[in-house]
Specification:
alpha+beta; Nuclear Transport Factor 2, Chain: A; Cyclophilin; 2 domains; nine-stranded antiparallel sheet; seven-stranded antiparallel sheet; 16 strands; elongated
């Protein structure tokens, strides 16, 4: 997903591409190797530092298609000057850029520089670039900045420390939140607390759906408790045992592989496979009950933009995406899910008294 651009690599990229004229010009001027500076102090940025860097990144984005202005923003004495300008040319491919974050990851001072130009910063630059064909590409790059000259806000970009290859975060069709079509087969789970109705997605997770349906039709889930419930998180069932006490395998004779889809998410109401790691699906399933989402995980997930917005709206657990197969979604009966999740539990999240059971699971045409 990401590629690390070391400073040494950045330099190696730059050198072969230099024209003879540039090399001669460079030789006549002092070329600074910011990579090898000795750090003296590291300290927390204050509001002024943050604003300066935000303003600098805003200028870099605004002027990305203007070589003359870009030249003013790049440290011309940097050993990786050419690579830095090439990086900015890459920004120019986007017709529009939305800056999500321009954050100082590290701020420090260096030796052998005077009081006006010894500040250095490593900056996390996260953005969404919109291409000519209307794709939205999210990238997180890390840039090296140096504050040069006598003007305390005269920041310059001297190099690329880490360059993200980019992830497509264009909007997707949120199919799991659509209502069932008339005649579509739905799943009805009758519990001691009430009825939960769900859509299943055999086109996106065929093995998970077939496994769940086959076990349910055999009555394997009947009179089974929700053995693990965590309020504001999820309710889990499917801990099936054979007569000898060993765990019942899936219908495929053992564990089966994950089925991830860019169209399905662990929103509140999602029906997903429980597992013990990659490709270990068997009989366990859970329903996401969390009414909120942790912003930290959204920031790390690079989700389609409308999926991220929907997480914020309805809740869920974004960090479970691409870890647990989503194969269905509740469209009626979330109040029942909430009731099951509210049970008192022990330290293992198992209900203490009169745990709520699944009475039966049926598959019927939707006629409402």
């Amino acid at each position: 997903m990401k590629k690390l651009v070391s400073l040494a690599v950045a330099a190696s990229i730059a050198i072969p591409l230099l024209s003879p004229a540039f090399v001669q010009h460079a030789a006549a001027n002092a070329i600074h190797d910011y990579r090898n500076e000795v750090q003296v102090n590291q300290f927390r940025p204050h509001g002024g530092d943050k604003q300066e860097v935000n303003d600098f990144i805003a200028s870099l984005v605004k002027q990305r298609s203007n070589p003359a202005e870009v030249a003013k923003l790049v440290a011309n004495d940097s050993f990786t000057n050419f690579a830095m300008k090439t990086y900015v040319e890459g920004l120019a491919q986007y017709k529009n850029i939305q800056v999500i974050e321009a954050k100082i990851d590290k701020l420090y001072t260096v030796t052998k520089e005077d009081a006006y130009n010894n500040y250095r910063a490593i900056v996390k630059f996260k953005y969404v670039g919109y291409t000519a064909d209307n794709k939205a590409i999210e990238k997180t790059d890390y840039l090296g900045l140096a504050r040069l000259g006598t003007d305390p806000v005269n920041w310059k970009a001297w190099g690329v420390i880490w360059q993200d290859s980019g992830i497509d975060v264009s909007d997707v069709k949120l199919i799991q939140l659509e209502k069932p079509r008339k005649g579509e087969e739905i799943c009805v789970i009758t519990t001691d607390a009430g009825v939960i109705k769900l859509r299943l997605f055999p086109n996106k997770a065929p093995k998970a759906v077939e496994n769940f349906k086959t076990l349910a039709k055999k009555g394997q889930y009947n009179n089974m408790i929700f053995h693990r419930v965590i309020n504001d998180f999820m309710i889990q069932a499917g801990d099936l045992k054979r007569p000898d006490g060993k765990e019942l395998p899936s219908i495929y004779g053992g564990s089966f592989e994950d089925e991830f889809s860019r169209d399905l998410f662990n929103f509140r109401g999602a029906l997903s496979m429980g597992n013990a790691g990659p490709n270990t699906n068997s009989t366990h399933f859970y329903i996401v009950q969390s009414p909120k989402v942790d912003q930290e995980y959204l920031d790390l997930s690079a989700l389609p933009l409308n999926a991220e917005a929907k997480y914020k709206e309805i809740g869920g657990r974004a960090y479970l995406d691409n870890r647990h197969t989503v194969f269905g979604h509740v469209f009626a009966g979330m109040e029942v899910v909430d009731k099951i999740a509210a049970q008192k539990t022990d330290e293992n999240a198992k209900p203490i008294q009169n745990p709520i059971k699944v009475q039966k699971i049926e598959f019927v045409p939707y006629n409402e």
